[in-house]
Write a structure and sequence with these properties.
16% strand, globular, alpha+beta, two-stranded antiparallel sheet, single chain
Length: 251
């Protein structure tokens, strides 16, 4: 469904207009878009990151919801909660579309992720979210043990007290297997924005999926970042336009 033009879309149009003016006026001032630039992130291999997995409707939007949070390192969309081995988008069996969130527990914790989970979808809707109807869009909190299960159950009970007229349908399940979805579904909102893809150097698919920067920009592209972060990224992009060099390395 097409929505009304947003401030972010207007901002993009302004960026493209500025690019056109620069190119027409003087090629020495023109922004140079590289064909490809590999991201060189900090070595994160020894960091004590944790993983959370939620299902809350379409995984395209779900990934964007969590990507912009401070402390979230990377996100991956996929399938979980069912019995079918190696599910696919057109044949996922009884799995739910899910998002896997890798996060730094020193910056954000599981309880805070649960708060975002509850505020980002309608947990009372049965087997669907909004216009997306089907078993694959059901609401689930996946846990990896006793403490997460306790936190999930407590948060569900609290959510139910806020909804006296209807039942919270969210399931709480011990995670069995998470199956990453096909590449075309990863960072879906970012891939729809060619301007942002160019700004980060046209990363190849494999690097884009693992990129912390792409994770953040995926939320920005969907306009789901908290206002403070959305404004901060706007400022970074404005700075790149002003300087004429488009390599956005961090936000």
């Amino acid at each position: 469904m097409l929505s009304e033009r947003s401030p972010f879309h207007s901002h993009q149009i302004l960026c493209f207009c500025l690019l056109t003016i620069l190119l027409a006026a003087d090629r020495t001032l023109a922004i140079r878009f590289p064909d490809r630039l590999s991201e060189n992130p900090k070595d994160l291999s020894n960091q004590p990151f944790k993983t959370a997995i939620f299902a809350l409707g379409s995984f395209w939007r779900s990934e964007s919801v969590f990507g912009c949070l401070d402390g979230v390192v990377r996100t991956t969309v996929g399938y979980a909660g069912g019995s079918k081995t190696n599910p696919e988008y057109r044949s996922l069996g009884d799995h739910a579309e899910s998002v896997q969130i890798e996060y730094d527990p020193s910056l954000i914790n599981f309880r805070q992720l649960l708060e975002v989970f509850w505020s980002s979808h309608d947990s009372r809707q049965v087997f669907g979210q909004g216009p997306d109807v089907g078993n694959q869009y059901r609401s689930i909190i996946f846990t990896n043990g006793t403490e997460e299960s306790r936190l999930a159950l407590f948060s569900k009970e609290r959510e139910q007290t806020r909804s006296k007229s209807s039942i919270v349908t969210t399931q709480i399940q011990l995670l069995a297997t998470f199956y990453p979805a096909e590449p075309e579904h990863q960072k879906f909102e970012l891939k729809r924005n060619l301007f942002l893809l160019q700004l980060i150097g046209n990363l190849p698919e494999e690097e884009l999926e693992k990129s912390s920067l792409a994770t953040r920009l995926n939320g920005y592209a969907a306009e789901l970042c908290p206002p403070k972060i959305q404004n901060r990224i706007d400022g970074k992009i404005d700075d790149i336009i002003r300087k004429g060099w488009p390599i956005l390395r961090d936000v």
